[in-house]
Predict the structure.
Amino acid sequence: MSFFAHNPILAFLVYVTHSALLRQIAYLKAENEILRSRLPKIIQTTPAERSVLVRLGAPLGSSIQEILGIVHYKTFLQWIRKERDGTNVKAMPRKPGRPTISPDVTALILRMAKENAWGYARIGGELKKLGIQVANNTIKKVLIVNGFHPSPWRTKGDWDRFIRLHMETLWSCDFFTKDIWTASGKVTFYVLFFIHVGSRRVHISGTTCNPTGPWVEQQARNLVMDLQDRGEKVSHLLRDGDTKFTQAFDEVFKSEGIKVKKLPRESPNLNAFAERFVQTIKNECLRHFVVFGQRHLEFLLREFASYYNTVRPHQGIANRTISTIIPFPTQAVPPRPEEVQCTAKLGGLLRHYSRKAA
């Protein structure tokens, strides 16, 4: 300080130069931030470039944190240690990010997800048992890209897994109502139906204006005998908490080794297949008619059930029909308009299109 006190001109020049350098540094930092925002998040550097940065930046100490832009401060400290230990050598070149996995490993991941509905963590554990090391995030990406949820148990829950596992031997039942006109006035009739979840095949059991316990029990016996005649295996029956489903109703199925699963109150989503059929039959058939008498109602139900179980395509089973009487055509050439015939039921309300016989 005493030196500059005796040389005021020199002190002024140093002050001016120092101020200019500070302004230049401030400008360069602002410009560097703008340029950095235009670049990728990760910038690869060579060993020679890292050596230059370490040689210039190490003398600055911890103040280097204020101007570091391309790497984190901890990474810069690692560069310094490697430079000091002589381990700053060029590594084998590879693409940024995690190494890609082979198609065989990808196929194995998708196989495990499809066959078991496992999440990424469980699949990673199974791969590790096979001597295959794959990062969890890589498994996640493979599952997401191929349409699988990485954690299906967290999102869908056990109910979806239960439906999927027992779909081919699972039946569901429910009631719906229809007001009809009789000689004594308007009467509400109850319709009991059963639906096979796997195929969507529906069995309309009966109609009554007074669904007593014995009547419901008899409908259960009728269904069991019908299934036995066809040799169908049933493991579970879903029903809601309606009081019309009595203990005797459940015992009919339990005596045949069928587990009756009573659903919680106010949970129609758990009986979604039955609820969807109710919406379908009302929208496509019943709401279009003023029904006169029980026989008229039963006729409409028979006609719609026949149409529903044979020729109507169902979106839930890839727009296929339940019955096999209408195989998909093998011809690649679409038919001409005159080669297509329309079959109608219920006065044209229910229509079915098919190719004319050759």
Remarks:
- The longest strand covers residues 170-182.
- The two ends are 112 Å apart (CA to CA).
- Strands lie at 170-182, 185-196, 202-208, 236-239, 259-262, 340-345, 350-355.
- Residues 103-155 form one domain.
